[in-house]
Structure formats: C-alpha cells, structure tokens
Amino acid sequence: xxxxxxxxxxxxxxxxxxxxxxxxxxxxxxxxxxxxxxxxxxxxxxxxxxxxxxxxxxxxxxxxxxxxxxxxxxxxxxxxxxxxxxxxxxxxxxxxxxxxxxxxxxxxxxxxxxxxxxxxxxxxxxxxxxxxxxxxxxxxxxxxxxxxxxxxxxxxxxxxxxxxxxxxxxxxxxxxxxxxxxxxxxxxxxxxxxxxxxxxxxxxxxxxxxxxxxxxxxxxxxxxxxxxxxxxxxxxxxxxxxxxxxxxxxxxxxxxxxxxxxxxxxxxxxxxxxxxxxxxxxxxxxxxxxxxxxxxxxxxxxxxxxxxxxxxxxxxxxxxxxxxxxxxxxxxxxxxxxxxxxxx
Length: 344
Prior knowledge:
Low-confidence stretches: 10-14, 78-99, 337-344
Distance between the termini: 68 Å
Mean pLDDT: 75
C-alpha cells in the first residue's frame, strides 16, 4: 500500500488566506446605562448611606486647627557686611566676610532637632487656661528616649513650612487640636528661630573677631621685631658707606614697612569685625503673627460627603453587578426581565 497525503478541502480553502483575530468588543455603554437605571433605587440608597456615614464621621473625628505666621528677613544695610562695603582684601588674609540672605536654610532650621526640642520642652497655656508642657500634650506617657524621639517626629509632622524664594517670605503653619495652643506654639517658633540665628551668627562673628585679634597680636610682634632689627643695625653702623650695608639697611626698612602695613590693615579689620559681631545677625520681622484660628482646617465635611457619595454609589454598583453575574450563571431571569414576562 502506497502512502498518500490527502489534501483536505478545508486546507485548500484556507490556503493563502489571512486569518484575522476576532475583535475585542468594547464596553456596552447602553447596557451599562440600562443596568444603572434598573438598579437606580439601590444606587440612590448607596449614595444616601455613603453621604450619611461620611457626615457622621466628620462629626466624630476631632477637629484640627492651623495657626499661621509669616516671617520676612529684614534687609541688611548696603546688602553686605562692612568688609564688603570698604572693599578691603579680606580674602588675602584668610578672612571670609558674609553677606546676602540665609532664608533658604530657615525651613531646615525650623525642622532641626535642636529647635523642635526647644519647643517641646517649653510650657504653654492651652484652651482651658492650664499650663502644660508641649511634649506632654503631643506625646503622653512617662519620659524616655523613645518618647522624646516620637515627640520630635510628631512635631515635625505638625509643621507646614513654605518659603517664597522670590521674596524670601517664610510662612509657618502649626497644626493642633487646641487652637490656642497652636497659635502659642507658632509665635514661640518665631522667637526660637531668631534665638538660634542670633546665637549662630554671633558665634561665627565672634570667631572671626578672635581670629583677627590673634593675627593682629602676631603682626604687632613681627613689626616690633622688624623695628628692633632696623634700630640695632643703625646703632651698629653709624656711617653706611659700603654697598652691602646700604642694601642691608634698605632690606630691613622694607621689611618694617611691610609689617607696618599688615598691622594697619588688621587693625582696620579688627574694628570692622567688632561692629559686624552685632550687625550681621539677621533680624526676622513678623509680618503676620499667629492668631487663634476661628475655623478648623479638618475634617472638611463637603469633601468627605462627596467622597462618601462616590464610595456609596461604587459599592452599590459593585453589589448589583455581582448579583447580576450570579443570576446569569444560574440561568435565572433577572428581576426586570421576570416582571416584563409576567406583564406579557
């Protein structure tokens, strides 16, 4: 028996043809609209229940208040330090003169552990008129390192800090359930920031002044040595006739003049540093002091009601879709279809 390959008609029919994939049908919006209309009562009930629960939750949640304060750094006279205004070459002597604004560092300073700890350890008067330590209000319990760490993190979360880089206007918001305490903490925050800046800048200016003072003392000793060398040379050589003695005298006189110019320059900068020690400290002007907020910031009933409405409708629609799928799987007519059948 010979083996033959029988070509089927179906194979000849599809030979050279392109088999197209079946197109995926998109959502039937009409069917969805009819389903939503058929279950409109359930959707409405879900919306009402969702709104009612959201509004009830807004009354149950404790209110939160935000006290805001606005700070602006006072401009410095001349836009720089006195060293810059006089044009002295401080860099040649290893002295850096500061100028400009440090406002970009203020948000980080406000969130620093040192400043936040200062706020937490201070006492305030709450809405009931009682004096309370802020750390006891923020984080209850017995004092411990863990409690202090958690209190610092919680206080940082309650701070809302924004800086306008164009105007250097600093806005600080403090959130708390006690409006009186929120305003008191916000105002204390301004004082704490000014204290930190004053201490930091005074320390830097004092270090600069001490450096110049030590350098000036050394330059005066070098000048005294140069003067003594020149005086000793002239006393030993009353008649300077040889070229070697003339050159030696010129060298000693030149060294004395250089030392003298260094002493004069350092003396000027020492006086300037003494002025800058109290002048370069940035001053923060409180544009808008914190007042006791009259309205709460959260919870907001309108957004919560809208969210409850959408959530209620979504839950009702999901429940209706699941019920419709179960009826189709069992092969039973749905409620609207059964009603139409009875009417026919």
